[in-house]
Write a structure and sequence with these properties.
By secondary structure, the protein is α/β, with parallel strands linked by helices. The protein is 37% helix and 14% strand. The chain binds 4'-deoxy-4'-aminopyridoxal-5'-phosphate.
């Protein structure tokens, strides 16, 4: 049952009713249902810069950022123009398009571990395909992932899988055969001993470790110093393939993603979100010898009717071309300032929270102390977050509708927006 928001108007309410009739939960992706914060789904129909407008014309300061792609803010004119220009040439033409080459080369230049790559239409497909490739290359079946990390909704990766799942309190998903889930080994993040023990127990049987190098799907959890290095050494020593899932962190925590930020060279990388400039996208790539196993060069099948879509490629190129390294530095310092102000605001309201941030990703955890893994994160007070969310929304600030989703800031967020967020939070923390 939906709970009307205070601000719901006639048009939004009517659309919501029609959507609820059509779509499970009224949505086409579960987190949009706003259930974990006790609100009705918003219907948003326009975005510009740091703001979005709902179907009743109400403007909201947006911290969802399309769940990651919108690092330039919404409707960046250069991206819009690139998409428009590409559209005039038709849409997907069913053959390789020059823009695929252009975007692929830009990604490779930014992430040298990606010697060759392939575009897909979603991050889910890319992660699923990278795992298939790792299994084929290694001749092994087991895959290690970390609790709370989300790598899309393919069967084997939908085990202890982060925000949407955590928020809905579903352990994995119905419909995933236990035989498939049994091939996934789930470990705590930031626990080098657990990793060492798992590799001792399953020596020579682990095809790959897939990791969000900064966990962003149970809220933001940075890697502890040395953890990613340990992961790199352990996988290399065992002959397992290290897959960095940089769907969120790629071009987000810095121009070269988490792999550049932390100085680790993974064997394979999974990308999505920002590289598509807001249009549907995914990509996986890495060592040339591994990518040589992908069809038609090799025996690992993977395909996509709309993969490398020219509109997506155009949006991705226009986006990456605007990501000068110094802009990341400026944005990170802005977000650092926001973190400080949120901490102060919470203290002023007598509210115990921990704020984490890496680059322009930020989480306010309603718990004492920053969590180092999913088990700790999941002790956060979701009801308190829900009240905070509602109080912020009432003040025109749209946070992610879950304690376990990162806030995505963008280059369109400036001092004025930081002030507005901090001022609203000072009141909302009391809620
Ligand atoms: N990996 C990570 C780290 C993600 O955060 C997501 C989606 N949020 C995915 C994979 C799946 O991407 P998509 O939703 O495009 O399938």
């Amino acid at each position: 049952m939906s709970v009307p928001t205070r601000t719901a108007g006639d048009r939004q309410e009517a659309l919501r009713a029609r959507a609820e009739d059509l779509f499970p939960g009224g949505v086409n992706s579960p987190v949009r249902a706003f259930r974990s914060v006790g609100r009705a789904p918003l219907i948003l129909e326009r975005g510009e810069g740091a703001y979005v407008w709902d179907a009743d014309g109400r403007r909201l300061l947006d911290l969802i950022g399309s769940w990651g792609p919108a690092i330039l803010g919404h409707g960046d004119p250069a991206v819009v123009e690139a998409v428009r220009a590409s559209a005039l040439n038709g849409f997907a033409l069913g053959a390789t398009h020059p823009l695929e080459v252009e975007l692929g080369e830009r990604i490779r230049a930014a992430m040298p571990s990606i010697e060759r790559l392939r575009f897909t239409s979603s991050g889910t497909e890319a992660a699923m395909s990278a795992v298939r490739l790792a299994r084929a290359a290694s001749g092994r079946d087991l895959v290690v992932k970390f609790a709370g990390a989300y790598h899309g909704h393919s069967d084997g990766l939908l085990v202890e899988a982060g925000s949407g799942v955590a928020t809905l309190a579903i352990p994995g998903s119905a419909g995933v055969p236990t035989e498939v889930a049994a091939l996934t080994v789930v470990l705590p993040f930031n626990d080098p001993t657990a990793l060492t023990l798992a590799f001792a127990e399953h020596a020579g049987r682990i095809a790959a470790v897939i990791v969000e190098p900064v966990v962003a799907n149970v809220g933001v959890i940075p890697p502890e110093p040395g953890f990613l290095e340990h992961l790199r050494e352990t996988t290399r020593a065992d002959g397992a393939i290290l897959i960095f899932d940089e769907v969120i962190t790629g071009f987000r925590v810095g121009p070269g993603g988490a792999q550049a930020r932390y100085g680790i060279r993974p064997d394979l990388t999974v990308l999505g979100k920002i590289i598509g400039g807001g249009l549907p996208v995914g990509a996986y790539g890495g060592r040339a010898d591994l990518m040589g196993l992908i069809a038609p060069d090799g025996p690992v099948y993977q395909a996509g009717t709309l993969s490398g879509h020219p509109l997506t490629m155009a949006a991705g190129i226009a986006t990456l071309d605007r990501l000068a390294p110094e802009r990341y530095v400026a944005l990170e310092s802005l977000v650092g300032g926001l973190e400080e102000r949120l901490v102060d605001a919470a203290a002023g309201a007598g509210r115990e929270v921990a704020v984490t941030h890496v680059g322009s990703l930020l989480t306010v955890f309603f718990r004492r102390g920053a969590p180092i893994d999913a088990a700790e994160a999941l002790t956060a007070d979701r009801a308190a977050y829900g009240r905070f969310f509602g109080a912020m929304l009432d003040r025109g600030i749209l946070l992610p509708p879950s304690q376990f989703e990162a806030w995505f800031l963008s280059f369109a967020h400036r001092e004025a927006e930081i002030d507005a967020i901090a001022d609203a939070a000072a009141v909302a923390f009391v809620a």
